[in-house]
Amino acid sequence: MTTIPDRTLAAVVRAFGEPIGIEEVPVPPTVEAGGLLVEVVACSLCGTDVHCWEGSLALDIRLPLILGHEMVGRIVAIGEGADVDSVGQDLRVGDRVIWTHSFCGRCEMCTRKRPAMCLKRTAYGHVSMQEWPYLMGGFARHSYVLPGSGRVRVPETIPDALASMASCALRSVVNAVEQAGRVGPEHTVVVQGAGPLGILATGLFAQAGAGRVVTVGAPAARLQLATEFGADEVISLEDTPDPADRLARVREATDGLGADLVAEFSGHPAAFAEGVEMAGLGARYLVVGQLGSGTTPIAPGTITKKNLTVIGSFSGDVSHYHKALTVLERYADRLPFDRLISGQYPLDQVNDVISRMQAFQEIKPVLLPAATS
């Protein structure tokens, strides 16, 4: 029988922008029906974690909290009725799982089968650690999977770091590409942003059969990686700092027509207006990266006159977690997923890792909570 510890170690944010401390936090002594207690084996950092720590997210954030929402855990204890995952696979102590934020299942959006828009959503990495069940973030040695969280068993062939990435970055891209609709050889896709999401999107659009994929971003090392994921052309923000020149490059690549699909993964508000200009007549504009509170001027008539379809894409449901794992398995020999993992670090190096992310020295770093310096 597995022993549940009384306390565990976690990286706790007590003030926005201040150094994160490693603290002992309580572990629920029992697991409720439908819940799981897991040992976090890997937690990859997302740009959202950095923005959350900075206090710049336009979301409800309650301090003090344990950061981290992109993680994979090994089951320590199983609540009654939680011995099967969300796609019908048996679960046992020792299995690895990834899991969703918690959805109520009874609100208007859940009824519309849009659980990511749940009106009573409980989000990992955003909830105060002072509230039961305390362990609501991945920057910790243990985490609690709520009954309302979908969960999927991780195949043995997928490494911990990639499984962790599947639980946010890749599932968000899978959902976004699905929402964007069909792309084929007749389409040019412009991807704004060369962070993890933009690079993953470059790969999935290329694998989906897009005729040409153009990735816009920086620095050069990330654009090189985008090329390895299938970008036919890259446009460097460093070498082409003027938006007018970047627009000219896109028009040149599309015989003056503009892109058939522009996909924004950069997170910079100014990218929105630029993406609208890059889109051709009748094009689609997929907006994924805009989670901050920043604003940008735009001529809305451009959307009308171009007859653009603007699509917002946020998060994903449990089906996208499952599909993300499938993508890792099916495309393992086509896309260099492991190249996105820029480093693996013990939990007590979390402040250094966040600083490195702010300086664009990391693409997708991973915390290993059980490791020690």
From TrEMBL:
The keyword Metal-binding applies. Signal peptide: none annotated. The keyword Oxidoreductase applies. Residues 33-149 form the Alcohol dehydrogenase-like N-terminal domain. GO terms for molecular function: oxidoreductase activity; zinc ion binding. InterPro entries: ADH-like_C (IPR013149), ADH-like_N (IPR013154), ADH_Zn_CS (IPR002328), GroES-like_sf (IPR011032), NAD(P)-bd_dom_sf (IPR036291), Zn_alcohol_dh (IPR050129). Keywords: Metal-binding, Oxidoreductase, Zinc. Residues 196-328 form the Alcohol dehydrogenase-like C-terminal domain. Its cofactor is Zn(2+). Belongs to the zinc-containing alcohol dehydrogenase family. This is Threonine dehydrogenase-like Zn-dependent dehydrogenase.
